[in-house]
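In response to a reviewer's request, we include the raw inputs and outputs for one of the modeled complexes. The three entities were modeled together in a single run.
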Amino acid sequence: MNPEEMLTKVGRVLSPHQVITSDLCSACEVDGKRPAIVARPQDAGEVGELLALCSHEGWGVIPWGSGTQIGIGNIPRRYDAALDLGALDEIVDYDAANLTLTAGAGCTLRSLQELVEGKRQLLPLDPPAAERATLGGVVAANAFGPSRLRYGAARDIVLGLQVALTSGEVIDVGGKTVKNVAGYDLTKAFVGSYGTLGVITRVTCRLFPMPPERRWVLVGFDRAGDAFDFVQKVLDSVLLPTSLDLVQGRVVPNRSDVSLWGIISLEGTHEVIQRQYRDLGTMAGGAHARHVEQLADEEPEGQQVRRLVQDMPAVSPEPLVVRLYVPISAVGSLWSAVQHLEAEGQASLNLLARPGLGVLYLMAQARDAHLSTIASTLQALAGEMGGHAIIERIPPEHKVHLDVWGTPRSDWPLMQALKARFDPAGILSPGRFIGRL
Amino acid sequence: MDFKELLAPYMDEMLRCTRCGFCQAACPTYDALRMESAVARGKIQLLLSVLNGRLDLSPKLSYYVYRCLDCRLCQQTCLSGVHTDEIFEGARRWLAHVGALPAPLQALEQRVFASHNIAGEDNAHRTLWRENMNLEVPAGQPAEVVFFIGCVASLYPMVYSIPQAFVQVLQRAGVSFSALDGEEWCCGYPLISAGRDAGPLMEHNIAAVERLGARWLVTTCPSCYHTWKTIYPPTSFQVMHATELLAALIEEGRIRPAHPPTVRRAGDAAGPLRVTYHDPCDLGRKSGVYDAPRRVITALPGVELVEMSTHHALATCCGGGGNLESIDPELSAQIAGRRLAQAQRAKAEVLVTACQQCQRTLGMAARRQRVRMPVMDVAELLLSAMEEPA
Amino acid sequence: MDESIIRTLQEIVGPEHVLTDPEDLLLYAYDASIHAGRPDVVVFPESTEQVSRVMALAHAHHIPVIPRGGGTNLSGGSVAPQGGIVLTLSRMTKVREIDIPNQRAVVEAGLYNLTLQEILAPYGYLYAPDPASQKVSTLGGNVAENAGGPHCLKYGVTTNHVLGLEVVLYDGRVVQLGGKAFDTPGYDLVGLLVGSEGTLGVVTAVTVRLLHVPEAIKTLLAIFDDLDGASQAVSDIIAAGIVPATLEMMDQLMMRAVEEATHAGYPTDAEAVLIIELDGLKDDMEEIADRIAQICQRNRARAVQVARTAEERDKLWAGRRGAFGATGRIKPAYLVNDGTVPRTALPQVLRQVREIGQRYGLPIGNVFHAGDGNLHPLILFDPREEGILELVERAGAEIMRICVEAGGTITGEHGIGLEKIHGMPLIASPAAIQNMRWVKEAFDPVGLLNPGKVLPQTSEGVPA
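The model returned the following structure tokens for the whole complex.
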């Protein structure tokens, strides 16, 4: 697409300073593809107008927050314009008494969390790279972090959305009440749709009271089997951990030399935390744990642990990052099943498990030629165990023959039908979603 | 003429039903059929439609009204307190009046009118239950207590054992009693519950008892008890259920259970005998007698009374209630099977009841399902725990 | 309906499971709402395969299909205003799998919610959504309505606890949406199906998430002499950072009906009560209960009682769950609103509701999920009174409007059904409704499933 011609047409919607062209567009590359322009609309109306224009012209458009999740997806079939939503950063309605917050999609999660923490409230979304991630991006990707165990994911926390459609119209879906069954639950259609049905311009979230105290518990194990026995015991107990992750021993600095660490966060009053700490200690002892300790969340070491479990999938340098999902009791077998990759010398692995969620992140360093084979093997393995795998990161050339979402299932024709109606011209992140929708 | 005016008085009561559907959870018939026609909400809507002129009288409508255990669990659990008993009784009167009784009930009615018992046998055969016993049972003699045996226990061999046990206990306790033999007529309940009057039967029975100068009428049949107690006009004598008399005799020390009941137990059974008690609808929910049978059971040595998941006022019907067995025997059997399953889940070794009809339906269910759980009457259990007479 | 279609239906589900007599059709023309609509035939499939064959037949002959569970719908969602096939799932009650290690259960749509709870109890697990109708409402129905319940304040509604669905589509195809694992790739079709009121597909089986039974439970009854104090206390409890498991309110009119029905121990001379339940770990429960009691007292509570035994607690809940049904003791019929508002708006909205009742001369009882701001004003009436229905519907529409004006919505858990279809434009713009229509078209392009519900007709009068 000729950038000059595009600029002229976009100029009818946006003022010149809202549009970037040429080399500066490299910041918005996706899978090696660079858009002709980057547009920065000021409000939802402008987003709608731009989408209508793209629809009319058949331009492929990819909505951008800060790009923390943008790598997830297939290679765009067509990519003419990037839609930078950073200017939609208005706090629309912070209703502290009702524990709701409505804010523009371009607000960073961090800024919103600082805002509500001022009133001792919590916006409990802790996806990787939360420092930079935008609210809209997190919601579009249904991104989550360790505390999904207690609070749920974006899917559970989002109450309503404002969405710009490819028709140019801007609609509100959902509302600001937790219970709402007026018509179809369209928020669910947009949350986790990775910008392929419409562009989220505003989000209403549910907030929670800030717990009086938060602590991290570290439990070290020599054997994976022991660690997963411990995890199963915790999950089958009355305890209410906020998060429960397992990582390999070497990733936790300045600690004894163990093979795996269980990292658990606890919230609540002091008594409730200490009681749970005691119970965890007993369970850990029963599972031959080598080391049990607690850290206050606000201490530097507590913050380090928080960042470790939260950010690992984003900050790890490996070229292959896969998020595998299985039924929760299968995470232990999955953990051992993937070890063969390392044992056979195919790859060196970094693992992060969230057993309560049935999630395992696998970060692999391997010979480039092997990456897509490893990825397909993992997708097949997760499938056999009753789950699935999403290839979060892999060099683009491997995506040519690989659907990063896995093989479409019997529900795919329905997704196709939805996509066809919401985006008839096929301009929103074209080709990026499952089955290259 | 459709005589809808017979239904009209129940309009207000029917309108109290808010159609919340909670009766689905209570109704044993619905539980088995899972169709709206089985449940009180549905029947009430049908009757309202008749009153509103949206539905005509039909054999199917009549069938639905009569396909009911009359167990009153719907009424017991109805949040709006709808008196389903009055509504359905009114509906049955209406249906009987317009000649819409289902065929099995017409036949039953004929038998009772003709022979004065539900079996259609010569009424002189009411002595069958005791004819193979080596016991003198006084009959037609003046006595303080008249034992009203009821049609089923008199004429259906499967439950002869109930009156047989009961009279043995009475004799060992030294109670002076008399039976009526052929002068006992059907109490009238089958007619009444079909929507008919039973005036002549009632008059005959009252006169027969009064002739013997009795102060008490005792019966092992909860339906006879309920009918005598609540539907008959006031009488010069008192009516009591067998279990009330047995409980009183134990408490007065006139009966001394000597040892644990002699019933067959599984080879590995240990500890006290686990006995569960099934509340007959006519005795419990409809007449309020819950404790007397339990007092008898708990007075026996080596017995532990365990309750099923539903009991007392919420006890599930055995499937033998109302006219269901005449209308749809298979459905009745299915419901009995579910009640028996409750007893199994309670890990009972013996299922005890105080009604010949419950004992028949539950006993047949046990046989059909090959469940080795004895089903017996309170009197039988008690007798088995008494010393053999010297 | 064509004889040959009936015959084919009989071949599919067995002759005894196809009903066509006028008596039977009448029995499936109503639900727990004030709406009615008579089907042409009622069928009772017992397997997904049978449901699939019925749908394929309906599709071939273009016959509407209305899925139905326990018939406890409160918005007319399970009646058949355009005739067609009522597809009753009451025979599909199999528990396919109780998978405790994975904290999941897979059950068929016709299973009662409470039956599932009873099955789970021995394992020490529960399924969180607990609609008041749980003893007779089915899991399939709960999914269709995105049912809530008292404990949803803390645990979320059905959509937060359903991970997978087996669905029969309009043409008989069977698809599996989601599963035991989270986040099946692609659009969140489970999320769309939940709350779609049987208009997108027939749910035949549900995979649900199970939660461990909490270690401790404490149930408080806070008694108030004025409604304002009670509703302010609700706001204050949440504002204090406390999220109880339940925070229910019942007013005097409802308490009187409930007491007569259940003898649960509600104070019928008080203006309102709050039923506040705490659950979780025992360690700080006493302290939280004390804080709640203080907040209630600051709002002029007459007393705050604690249920001392499980039996006392069960009785309070039996009364609460039976409240709608008990209104028959006051008036023969009711229209229940289901508007949801931000909690801080409760005192004002409740005053407005009372004012509407006075203006129309209609008694209105309130028993509702106050912690969620989910009102249930019950407008009580006798349908035999001339012109009363119109009055009731007008009062109901006004209540919907004030809820929307207060920043809320017209239904929190009972659904749009037939009853609130005219209220849809209050909360959804034409473009948003068009969006919903796209969803409908994607799932049911010919409009066979539960037609005439949820979506208002288009301006051209074309059925949605």
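As requested, we also summarize the result in words. Chain B touches chain C through 31 residues (CB under 8 Å). The radius of gyration of chain B is 21 Å.
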